[in-house]
Amino acid sequence: MTIPDDHPRRESLLSRQKIVDAQAAGLLADSALIAHGRGEAFDYLIGERTTDSAKRAEMEALDRLFRAKSPVISMNGNTTVLAGREAICLAALTNSSVEINIFYRTEDRMRLLLSEIHNMKDYVMENPPSDEIESERWRDMVKSVKIHGENPDAKIPHLKGPRALCSSQGIFRADVILVPLEDGDRCEALVSMGKEVIVIDLNPLSRTSTTASVTIVDEVKRAMERMVIMALEGPLNSNSDWDNRAALVDALNEIGRSTKLLSS
Ligand code: ATP
User: Fold this and answer.
1) What DSSP character marks residue 160?
2) In a domain, 217, yes or no
3) Of 18, 75, 180, 246, whose Cβ has the fewest other Cβ atoms within 10 Å?
């Protein structure tokens, strides 16, 4: 598909094509297209940009990842396809591990996604996010990012079926977990386990968004890219008294403002 460079919705159309191609290649369940479409609709309303309230949430999320003892970035199929490289960079910079954890788990899909994320890790190792990082140091940082998911040996309590599965060394023992595009039930179950749950979800009204400890209402690739740039500066040491409900209200107000129906 050829999309002109000056097409106003170029990024969105490229992401859509990535999802379509990955689904055809067997990396994603059919429902992944529906979830993506729901995200696109909200992104359209937000104006396909990172709002000020999302920037604040990204800063808060980063601060929590830096302060965590066992931070984990949980990757589903869509997130791996859209922002896998950014997630690996973020994991390297915040000392997090990565877990491939999908809702509709099949052995084939897990094998394909794990191979995809390992290829991305190899790519990221040779391509630091900034010229200022020394190559050898960057390689070591990326090498130390653990990828979990191959042998799930633990279960998230109160969930039934394959979606309860996780790794004892990854999600199960994490104190802070970044789960882009999570499902409401699982988000609730992770919060009940006492974890700080950071989500990236374009829908500020989803059960996931309203249940999480920190909700980033932004597109997953944009959010991760920004967090990588911020993480290059090191820990932020912000002392914010985070109010997630207020952040969601801000996000809804920003939607109103981008549609120009409400005054700014
Ligand atoms: P919940 O169970 O939390 O109420 P849901 O059933 O609406 O959620 P799903 O269909 O499981 O949600 O997941 C899709 C969610 O991910 C939607 O809320 C959608 O807005 C969001 N989403 C989809 N694509 C993206 C993306 N690229 N970036 C950020 N969020 C996205």
Assistant:
1) -
2) yes
3) 246
User: 16: Cβ below 6 Å to ligand 1?
Assistant: no
pLDDT digits (tens, 9 = 90+) for 241-258: 999 999 999 999 988 887
The Cα 73–Cα 58 span in angstroms is: 14
CB-based contact 215:201 (threshold 8 Å): yes
Distance CA 29, CA 249 (A): 32
Q: What is the pTM of this model?
A: 0.95
The CATH number that applies at residue 198 is 3.40.50.12640
Closest alpha carbon to 214 in 95, 68, 37: 68
Tell me if 184 CB under 6 Å of ligand 1.
Answer: yes
Closest CA to 246 of 43, 57, 39, 29: 57
Quick: pLDDT tens for 63-99.
999 999 999 999 999 999 999 999 999 999 999 999 9
Phi, psi of 51 (to 5 degrees): -80, 165
Domains contained in the chain, number: 1
Phi, psi angles (nearest 5°) of residue 216:
-100, 110
Instruction: Classify residue 176: in a domain, yes or no.
Output: yes
Residue nearest to atom 25 of ligand 1 (CA): 39
42 alpha carbon – ligand 1 mean position (Å): 9
Q: Whose CA is nearest to atom 19 of ligand 1?
A: 39
Task: Answer yes or no: is 201 within a domain.
Answer: yes
Pair 190, 157: CB distance under 8 Å:
no
Decide if 217 contacts 248 (C-beta within 8 A).
Answer: yes
Indicate if ligand 1 lies below 6 Å from the C-beta of 202: yes
Ligand 1, atom nearest to 201 Cα:
30
